[in-house]
Design a protein that fits this description.
Largest sheet: 2 strands, antiparallel
Family: Belongs to the G-protein coupled receptor 1 family.
Keywords: Chemotaxis, Disulfide bond, G-protein coupled receptor, Glycoprotein, Membrane, Receptor, Transducer, Transmembrane, Transmembrane helix
CATH architecture of the largest domain: Up-down Bundle
CATH superfamily of the largest domain: Rhodopsin 7-helix transmembrane proteins
Strand content: 5-15%
Order of helices and strands: HEEHHHHHHHEEHHHHHH
CATH topology of the largest domain: Rhopdopsin 7-helix transmembrane proteins
Subcellular location: Membrane
Number of domains: 2
Strand order of the largest sheet: 1-2
Main location: membrane
Distance between the termini: 70 Å
Shape: globular
Helix content: over 70%
Membrane topology: Multi-pass membrane protein
Radius of gyration: 26 Å
Number of strands: 4
Length: 358
């Protein structure tokens, strides 16, 4: 009886982006369109490879190779959010490959969803901060010279991370695992009666869409319009290459996440229409894959749009290559010197060289 109640709960109001399959209650069989499997796995795998390497390079450059400025702090924290998220992508890849069978336990089920939500909130919040800061730094230069400091930016970054974590707490509360037709699924279990669960589901989707997308992008659009007006009014204000890079990153985030939030709102009415149910079943996995892909897009955009970033990466790679070759040459020379006979041609290894072997 308890298993039947759980199955009813799962079918009625816990559908999420990684759970869209064909559920045949009469046969008790679960199937998923093979094409969606393949597309999701390919996009997740590509996001993981590009995301780890690309965001890792951005973290290395902005965190260790450049002067710590306000702009570099925004980009560093944005890259950290994406980097942590893509590290968890192999769990989602495994989940899809196993026909949505979760075998990592309840803690990882909660943590995986928690990290994905933090990535969404932190990314859009930092983009909002970037956009507003871009306008203020160009339109109110005297104010920025006094108050726009790296120390204040660090505290703002801490505030963004705390707000993102608090908004992501529903994943820790409602995300659960359950045996369903021979598989363990990781899903949102809103508990209690169907009416209360529907209210909680509606509130969570509305909060995620409003706070995680609509309001931040409204602020981004307003600051962008104000900046455009200021540039047209004053010839002394010029849009920098960094500002253009930020605009491209913001546009990419909008294009990648807008379908996900659109399907999230459609999901609230999925039980009223079989056609809508089929649309969500097909479209939600693709929309989620596109949203996940955004985590590896930013580093590529930095390289394509910003010549300064390309020059910095080229210079950093050359420095690493030179240092590596220098260390390799010293190591080979030290090994050869240490292997020579003591009286061979009356040559003795030099003291510094002998020390380098140790």
């Amino acid at each position: 009886m308890m298993d039947q109640d759980y199955e009813k709960d799962y079918e009625n109001y816990s559908y999420e982006y990684l759970e869209y399959g064909d559920f045949d209650d009469s046969k008790g069989v679960y199937t998923q369109t093979e094409t969606l499997h393949i597309i999701s796995v390919v996009i997740y795998s590509l996001s993981f490879i590009l995301g780890v390497s690309g965001n890792g390079i951005v973290i290395w450059v902005t965190g260790f190779k450049t002067k710590r400025t306000v702009n570099s702090l925004w980009l560093l924290n944005l890259a950290v959010a994406d980097f942590v998220f893509v590290l968890f992508l192999p769990f989602s890849i495994d989940y899809v490959l196993r026909d949505f069978h979760w075998h990592f336990g309840l803690v990882m089920c909660k943590l995986n969803s928690f990290v994905s939500m933090i990535n969404m909130y932190a990314s859009v919040f930092f983009l909002m901060v970037l956009s507003i800061d871009r306008y203020v730094s160009l339109a109110h230069l005297s104010w920025c010279q006094t108050y726009r400091t790296a120390s204040r930016a660090r505290w703002l970054c801490v505030g963004v991370w705390i707000a993102s974590a608090l908004l992501s707490c529903p994943a820790l509360i409602f995300r659960e695992t359950m045996d369903f037709h021979g598989r363990v699924v990781c899903f949102n279990n809103f508990h209690d009666t169907a009416e209360e669960a529907a209210v909680r589901h509606f509130a969570m989707v509305l909060l995620r869409t409003m706070i995680g997308f609509i309001l931040p992008f409204s602020a981004i659009c307003v600051s962008g319009v104000l900046l455009t007006m200021r540039v047209r009014q004053s010839r002394a204000v010029h849009v920098s290459r960094f500002s253009k890079t930020v605009s491209v990153v913001i546009l990419a985030f909008f294009l990648c996440w807008m379908p996900f939030h659109t399907f999230s709102l459609m999901e609230l009415s999925m039980h009223t229409s079989l056609v809508l149910h089929n649309v969500l079943r097909t479209g939600f996995p693709l929309a989620t894959s596109l949203a996940f892909f955004n985590s590896c897009v930013n580093p590529v955009l930095y390289v394509l749009v910003s010549k300064k970033v390309r020059d910095l990466l080229k210079r950093s790679c050359l420095d690493i290559t030179k240092n590596s070759l220098r260390e390799l040459s010293q190591s080979i020379s030290a090994t050869k010197s240490a292997s020579l006979p003591p009286n061979s041609n009356n040559c003795q290894p030099e003291e510094p060289l002998a020390s380098s072997v140790v």
